[in-house]
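General statements about sequence and structure are easier to judge against a single worked case. No coordinates are needed to read the tokens, only the vocabulary itself. The sequence in question and its structure tokens are set out directly beneath this paragraph.
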Amino acid sequence: MSSLKPGVVAELTADQEMPYGFFLTDGENRVLLHHSEMTEELQEGDAVTVFLYHDKEVRLAATMRIPKIQVGYYGWAEVVDKHEDLGVFVNIGLPKDILVSGDDLPKFFSLWPEPGDQLFMTLNRDKQDRLYGRLATENIIEQVARRASSEMNKASIQGRVYRLLRVGTFFLSEQGYRCFVHENERREEPRLGQMVEGRVIDVKEDGSLNVSFLPLKQDKMSDDAEIIFEYLLERNGSMPYWDKSLPDEIKDRFNMSKASFKRALGMMMKEGKIYQEDGWTYLKKD
């Protein structure tokens, strides 16, 4: 059995030059380093540091372009494709993209990463030594995350979503802080791997952050009004909702409380944008 495994860095020797590259050896086994995967010239007998992977024909191959993500090493990888029956493919800098299985992704396909999103992950090998991507567990995130200070309270913050639960969203900020957004602090659930932005509402004793995706109260009325305004436009300027509509109806349609809905309607009426009549709300025509 070969001692050379995909997913790791190896120190090998240039054994034999071929028209298409070099065969490298560890003294017992040989692996091909294609010319396209060389970053510097070699001579037979030279020592070379390479990363091992399987090429598209599932043959063990080598590259001098060493990716940060390896077996046992974590990093961010960009999603380049998705297939509902397989999972998503990510680019870690190899000629061949790496699969993250759908079994490791959210239950709902709508929450799967889109191309351009990024996943915090490592590499594993299956029973046939084929490489696949594995998302970082919460234990790994706790190890790599930085502790935030109290100065972060009320700060704006951005980061990538790394975990989705029914109770809320977890993301790792650009500064390396571990962040949690409770389901009540968001209007919709973001995708895994999506870049998100919010504001810090609490700095926990363990250095993690509680974050809200909702705007401050003084900003929220204008955001709520915008949602209502867009809905009215979609319905040609009228809707069967007004300030006496039931709270559950408002929550189901607009995902906001009745108090927020009434504030937004009041602001829009004060600005002369809408009027109400017989249980309906209408846009005023110019």
Q: What stands out?
A: The CA atoms of residues 37 and 63 lie 5 Å apart. The mean pLDDT is 92. Residues 217-283 form a domain with the Arc Repressor Mutant, subunit A fold (CATH 1.10.10.10).
